[in-house]
Design goal:
With 137 residues, the chain is α+β, with helices and mostly antiparallel strands. It contains three helices and five strands; from the N terminus they run E-H-E-H-E-H-E-E. A hairpin with a 5-residue loop joins strand 4 and strand 5.
Length: 137
């Protein structure tokens, strides 16, 4: 059988502050620099979600991209777009919102919602040059 990888890309904007409340202000400033700004800062995120599987013999789809789009909107975009990740996003509560942690949290939000295929990769671009990739490992 053939495994195919299908990817949906979406865009959203969100603010955050990298800050570990268990550490001192000096430690946070030294560790995170400008990303520790108490007045927050924002990013224009790009999210790519890849699903792997065999095409269904009846539809030819690994997963219907329209359904994947709905899942991404319901489980992620509607919760994070134009929001503060530290204060307003339920699935980021108590999590330092680094790109690494954010990608893992997104994976956890969508993994059980897929109607077909298996979640293969969450790739999150914080900037055009900086991104993280999580594969559930």
């Amino acid at each position: 059988m053939s495994t195919v990888y299908i990817t949906r890309k979406v865009h959203f904007n969100a603010a955050h502050r990298l800050h570990n409340p268990e550490k001192s202000d000096a430690w946070n400033e030294a560790t995170y620099g400008k990303d520790n700004n108490p007045n927050w800062h924002g990013h224009n995120y790009e999210l790519e979600v890849t699903v792997a599987g065999e095409p269904d013999p009846e539809t030819g789809y690994v997963v219907d991209l329209g359904i994947l789009k709905e899942i991404l909107h319901d489980r992620v975009l509607d919760k994070v777009d134009h929001q503060n990740l530290n204060l307003e996003v339920d699935f980021m509560d108590g999590v330092i919102p680094s790109s690494e942690n954010f990608a893992i949290a997104i994976w956890n939000e969508i993994d059980d919602a897929l109607p077909g295929g298996e979640l293969h990769c969450v790739r999150l671009y914080e900037t055009p040059r900086n991104f993280v990739e999580y594969r559930g490992e």
